[in-house]
Amino acid sequence: MSQVTNIFAPAATPAHAIFHLSLLVLGITSCIFLVVSGLLLYALIRFRNRASATSDPQEPAQIYGSNQIELSWTVIPVLIVVMLFLATARIIFSTENAPKPSDALDITVIGHQFWWEYRYPKLGVVTANELHIPTGDAAHPIPSYLTMSSADTDHSFWVPRLAGKMDLIPNKINTMWIDPLEPGLFLGQCGQYCGTQHAKMLIRVYADRPAQFAAWVAHQLQPAAQDPAAAEGQAVFLRNACISCHTVAGTTAAGRFGPDLTHVGGRDTIASGSVPNTAANLRAFVDNPAHFKPGALMPEMHLNAHDLDAVAAYLTTLK
Amino acid sequence: MATQTPEIEILNQSTPTEPRHPWLEVLHGWVTTVDHKKIGLMYIGYALLFLVIAGVEALLMRVQLAIPNNTFVSPQVFNRLFTMHGTTMVFFVGMPILFGFGNYLIPLMIGARDMAFPRLNAFSFWISAFGGLLLYFSFLGGDGLYGAGNAPDVGWFAYAPLTSRVFSPGHSTDYWTLAVLLSGVGSVGTALNIIATAICMRCPGMKMSRLPLLVWLYIVTSGLALIIVSPLTAAQIMLMLDRYAGAHFFDTQAGGSAVLWMHFFWIFGHPEVYVLVLPAFAFANEIIPVFSRKAIFGYPAMVAASVGIGFISLSVWAHHMFTVGLGAGANTFFTLATMVIAVPTGIKIFNWLATLWGGRIHFTVAMMFAVGFLFQFLIAGLTGIMLSVSPLDWQLSGSYFVVAHFHYVLVGAILFMIFSAFYYWYPKMSGRMLSEKIGKWHFWLFLIGFHLTFDFMHVPGILGMPRRVYTYEADRGWMIWNVIVSSGAIFQTIGTLLFVYNMIRAYFKGPIAGADPWDAWTLEWATSSPPPDYNFETIPTIRSRRPLWDLKHPEDPDSNYEF
Ligand code: HEC
Ligand SMILES: [Cu+2]
Ligand SMILES: [Cu+2]
């Protein structure tokens, strides 16, 4: 069974809490299932109409009810419900009302039709689609607090190994927290139907060791690379409509409708995790975004082959 | 079993012989009818038609999802398919088929000649039918002037602001809104009619405490429908105002609230599940006792549990919104409210078990489907408890686990009971018996298909697969499960085709049923099959919950045991 997005392979405190609770719930429901279905099976076999009985037209004894028995199968479920409810309430409060440590990392998550915008207000970092957060361990978890909303329709942030999902709703601010206990790449995807490309609104969370994370932040704060070899591509980029939708820090491109491209070349994937970030894929995507993502909100840009090559080359230099 | 007492024969002496009509006369007769039996049959036929259409939509989706990155249908088409599938199944299959059985059976079971308001009855049917046509007309008219794609693609719960003009140009959402609104008008009419009929049209001797359980459950269902259709209708009107009159109820771009729509929708949506499942319970309450040859166990508790479920179900809607960020307090409350529903539901299951206990169980096809219902409803209830645990729901909400859970309710419980009801009442409606042999094939094929599809559908949800995705990544380990899920669809399709064949075949050459083929106990079996227009020559008078039992067992009538 694949582990990549399995809710039973938790790797952060909220997912662990849910996992343990789910074991309790599974235990209780399995017991109920075994008892009730066992009784049902027994009754069906024991009281089936036997061949010998058909010759005997007598009806079985008619029993209309019994208050004691009915009371017992009312009270026992009530007790089970009370127990289950208390166990659940504990986890609800410990997850949703957990006190926020003063050194927690703040991240603003904005859902867009078919991609994710991530902003680190205290650090001044802006990126898209690939979220980097620091990793702690069981003794010293480092929580990252996600403050979330949406720029358009409803979305939901779901990375099963880290936590349950939380919706991103326009005009509403939600929060959740995650504290990966082991470094690694955690996958997920949008959990609330948000339009044509809901299926390709994938999430990638990179849990970095603290030193690695610091290095990543430092790199993100750099302005966009200015590779003279890619000057032509940059010129094409800057004279086309790209700049009204995309930001490249340090240039005139300051659009916010599409993902920030300042360090797009440093990402592993493009189009919200849809395809690996290679020069060929970048070129194909800019040529016609519908190639990978029919219905994505970036229009076909109608660049000629020469300009396409140049822009793709430029984008790859934006490490 | 088919022993008939002379008393019953007296009740159905006359079987009128109708003169042959040319087909136009026949058509005219159906279109203008206000007879509850004909309207009931039209409801059922109409629902079956849509069942086939929505079933084909499901099949297409399962083909697309069988393998990752499939290109069998485009994302746009896929999104329309699941929207149309869900909307059709809930509003134009589930509601009409249950109202159809209710219409047909309730007057017969309470010894009445028709519903309380026959014309309202016809109106309700035709307005709902028009709603269904409108929904499908969107394939032609939805484009509007925008060329923006035809049929609705906003999902069956149509969350705001996806439905606003910005995100849904063209008219597809308008067709959706109007179709749902019209179906709601029909539902309110029928719900009122059922309540009025059950309360005012009972034959002499039929006190409320002697009402067949089926009728009781239809009262609860109808009461619920009356309450919940109003917020749904209100929300549809608000949406139309948003779209065409510049209102901003749900228009988040102008400060409206997306969460408001969710509340409106789920205040309808959750109890709607019970509106659909209570009639299934109603069928079980009639069919299980007859084939166990025992009276239902704990009649008063069954009534109380149904009414209890009805009330509690009105206070649990936000369990569909555990991930919306309502806060720990609200999530805790709705967790508790949802869990509490398990108690009356448990009472029902145990009472059915106790009805089987000590009986003499005849495994007719109707009973086999009812037994399938018992097990599957048990499992559906247990996965429901899992989802009521809100932290677990944070993981599973909006995933394939939820899809599996509610299909366990809708197919495993409700559709199984509907099949059971067909095998049980088809003889009454048509005068002919369905083939038990074909029926058994139908049952086993459908059972295998159901479990292949919906048991294994829980797994991809646990592995992180969200619903409503037109395709999925190949590296998540979801493919194998989706292959199994899709393969089950084949068995279900064959089973359903056999069922349709069985009905058509029986209509022409099934054995004649007679008035009371199952040796049953309620009044619909006291008149001929199919019943005459006026149902009963003389209105019967009854002395207990099982009038035909009393007739057949004068030495030991039920009336001796009533309290
Ligand atoms: C109308 C606004 C718009 C214009 C103009 C536009 N884009 Fe985009 N772009 C988007 C959107 C929206 C996305 C996100 C698509 C998705 O993943 O769903 C995107 C995504 C991208 C990505 C992938 C980023 C990532 O990390 O996944 C690249 C690269 C890109 N655009 C380059 C360009 C270039 C080069 C141009 C100009 C030739 C351009 N875009 C013009 C809106 C635009
Ligand atoms: Cu989304
Ligand atoms: Cu619900």
Give your account of this protein's structure.
The complex is a heterodimer of chains A (319) and B (563). With 319 residues, chain A is α+β, with helices and mostly antiparallel strands. Chain A has helices spanning 13-46, 51-54, 67-96, 210-221, 231-239, 242-245, 279-287, 305-317; strands at residues 105-112, 115-120, 125-128, 130-134, 144-150, 155-157, 166-168, 174-178, 184-189, 202-208, 269-270, 275-276. Chain A folds into 2 domains: 1-41 and 68-221, Sandwich (Immunoglobulin-like), CATH 2.60.40.420; 228-317, Immunoglobulin-like (Sandwich). Chain A is 36% helix and 18% strand. In chain A, helix 1 packs antiparallel against helix 3, helix 5 (231-239) packs across helix 8 (305-317) and helix 7 (279-287) crosses helix 8 (305-317). Chain A is elongated. With 563 residues, chain B is mainly α. Chain B has one domain: Cytochrome C Oxidase, Chain A (Up-down Bundle). Chain B is built from 18 helices and no strands. In chain B, helix 3 (36-65) packs antiparallel against helix 17 (479-509). Chain B starts with 5 loop residues before the first helix and ends in an 11-residue tail after the last helix. At the A-B interface, helix 1, helix 3 and strand 9 of A face helix 4, helix 8, helix 9, helix 10 and helix 11 of B. One copper (II) ion is lined by residues 270, 273, 319-320 of chain B.
User: Structural class of the helices, strands and pairings of chain A?
Assistant: alpha+beta
**Which kinds of small molecule does this entry bind, naming each only once?**
heme C, copper (II) ion
Q: Give the distance, in angstroms, between the N- and C-terminal Cα atoms of chain B.
A: 29 Å
Number of strands of chain B: 0
The CATH architecture name of chain B reads Up-down Bundle
- Helix share, percent of chain A: 25-40%
Low-confidence stretches of chain B: none
Described by the principal axes of the CA atoms, the overall outline of chain B is globular
The SSE string of chain B, one letter per element, is HHHHHHHHHHHHHHHHHH
CATH architecture of the largest domain in chain A: Sandwich
Amino-to-carboxy terminus distance of chain A: 35 Å
Reported by name, the CATH topology of chain B is Cytochrome C Oxidase, Chain A
